[in-house]
Design a protein that fits this description.
about 550 residues, alpha/beta, Alpha-Beta Plaits, 10 strands
Length: about 550
């Protein structure tokens, strides 16, 4: 029995089309097997997850999931599958956009049996080509795995052990001497090279991990060759797709310059040969093994700046960086105010200020993400005050996760910028009513001026330049409370904070929150809370 070599899946929502194709092609004579037919893209996507498929023939317009969506799914998850799209005349140009999903052929409906046979023959050649490429990759992978067993790996482990201070200096030097490596030198300096494309190993597919292992092997060979030619030190495989370099020599300005030139040469060479960018961190000078370990740590730390500053970095770190204190609280408050006031340019400017300060502070990824999450939450809360039923908030957790998963600060910040833009549009829609806008400005005014004992209905109406009767109406509609009720509640909340967190006297707190008469403050406080200020403070400070 002849083995079926090419497995084909047919996807079309018209049963007559599927029947015609199934019956009019001699699949066996073409060394093909029609392994299945589906009436929509969703069913096809489920089918390929449980059945091996080489070629997919798909219509473009279908329910549940169309041919474009199916092509994208296959491109992202099953890149070895060859895709052919059927399309009507009016859909043809639209279908051609699927080139980004590696669609191999487009066929204009109606499709004749002869046309389809010719296309299938072409697709078989493409399948053969991809199989050969896959086999080649597997052979290279096997070569790489075999390589792991040879002397270079032993050499790399010994060098890594020396750098990480695993053994005594003498033990390490004797072990390396037995491998033909002389590490006796006045001073050392550690550099770490990492391929930018494969920096986040946790998110790589199995195929990409294989590819990254091969590319890091190439990086090691290039680095080792250049460093050896310059008689500047030795290279070693540092694990996790990284390459290490141990530079050895006298601590001079000339040798410093030479190290940086060698690193740039390695970057240029890899770019030239493989079209890949690498980031390089260079640690401090070291005499002892403890200092050597620190040099390695600083080199690794330098590479982490890639998240903030982008790839293809070359950073030298002579000493451990100081922890930069950075607070974006004031910026976030200004951003909230700009969003409430409908000032788009201001909000965009503030966002760029925040971005610049985070980068300048050289914070690590986790802290940068915390700052970005602060912005998202503040923007959401601002919107929630105005549009409580906004569906934006149901997306918040997913957005926060997305921000954390980005490999660069710029891509994470772009998500935040887009989200704030969406919030701005929501607020602008809600602010379309001038009355609502004035009521919200009044709330902001109360928050900023509650400590003024002269703050009154008349003064705020004068500020807004509207009548007291109109203001009272729109304010009650927005808040559900009168101006006086909101003012008293705001003052009482501020008073509670002071009673809980300070040792101020009651009369001092009264003055701080806008009461000219401490006695009236006490009466108002008890009316709202059920206890006197003194009783409240005693209870909260226990």
């Amino acid at each position: 029995m002849t083995e079926i070599m090419y497995r084909i899946l047919l996807v079309d929502d018209e049963i007559l089309v599927r029947d015609a194709i199934r019956e009019n092609i001699d699949w066996k004579a073409m060394d093909c097997e029609l392994v299945g037919d589906c009436d929509n893209g969703k069913a096809a996507a489920e089918f390929v997850q449980t059945h091996p498929v080489d070629i997919v023939l798909t219509d473009i317009l279908m329910p549940y999931m169309d041919g474009m969506e199916l092509s994208r799914f296959l491109h992202d998850n099953y890149p070895d599958i060859v895709i052919v799209i059927f399309s009507g005349f009016g859909e043809f140009e639209y279908a051609k956009k699927a080139i980004q999903y590696d669609v191999s052929e487009y066929m204009l409906k109606p499709v004749t049996a002869m046309e389809l046979r010719n296309v299938i023959e072409k697709m078989k050649e493409k399948v053969d080509q991809r199989r050969k490429e896959k086999e080649k990759l597997e052979r290279l992978t096997q070569t790489s795995e075999n390589y792991q067993k040879n002397a270079i790996v032993i050499r790399s482990r010994a060098l890594q052990g020396f750098v990480d201070n695993i053994k005594t200096r003498q033990e390490s030097l004797e072990e390396l001497a037995a491998l033909g490596i002389d590490l006796e030198a006045a001073c050392y300096r550690v550099a770490v090279f990492e391929l930018d494309l494969y920096s986040d190993g946790s998110q790589l597919s199995a195929e990409k991990r294989q590819e990254s292992a091969l590319m890091s092997f190439v990086l090691f060979n290039i680095s080792d060759e250049i460093i050896s030619e310059e008689k500047a030190g030795v290279a070693y495989q540092a694990g996790n797709n990284k390459v290490g370099a141990l530079f050895m020599g006298n601590r001079t300005r000339e040798f410093d310059q030479k190290i940086m030139e060698i690193c740039r040469t390695i970057q240029d060479k890899l770019k030239e040969l493989m079209s890949l960018d690498i980031s390089i961190g260079v640690g401090c000078w070291a005499r002892t093994q403890q200092e050597l370990q620190l040099s390695h740590e600083l080199a690794e730390k330098a590479i982490e700046y890639r998240y903030l500053l982008g790839g293809n970095l070359l950073i030298s770190m002579e000493e451990r960086p100081e922890e930069n204190s950075l607070s974006i609280k004031n910026h976030v408050e200004k951003l909230v105010a700009a969003l409430k006031a409908g000032k788009k340019e201001n909000s965009e400017h503030i966002l760029e200020q925040i971005s610049s300060e985070i980068k300048e502070a050289r914070v690590d990824k986790s802290r940068a993400c915390v700052y970005l999450q602060q912005i998202i939450r503040a923007a959401d809360e601002t919107c929630e005050d105005v549009v409580p039923d906004s569906r934006l908030f149901s997306k918040r957790d997913a957005l926060l996760q997305q921000v954390t998963e980005q490999n660069s600060f710029d891509s994470a910040f772009a998500l935040v910028r887009n989200h704030v833009g969406e919030i701005f549009r929501k607020l602008s829609d809600a602010n379309s009513s001038s009355g609502q806008r004035q009521a919200r400005l009044a709330l902001d005014y109360i928050q900023k001026n509650y400590m003024d004992p002269d703050l009154s209905l008349n003064s705020i109406c004068s500020y807004l330049n509207i009548s007291t009767s109109y203001f009272s109406t729109i304010f009650k509609e927005l808040t559900g409370e009168t101006f006086t009720e909101v003012l008293i509640r705001t003052r009482m909340e501020k008073a509670k904070e002071l009673l809980e967190n300070t040792t101020m006297k009651n009369y001092e707190i009264a003055e701080k929150v806008g009461f000219a008469d401490p006695h009236y403050f006490g009466i108002s406080f008890k009316k709202m809370t059920g206890c006197t200020p003194t009783e409240y403070a005693r209870e909260k400070r226990k």
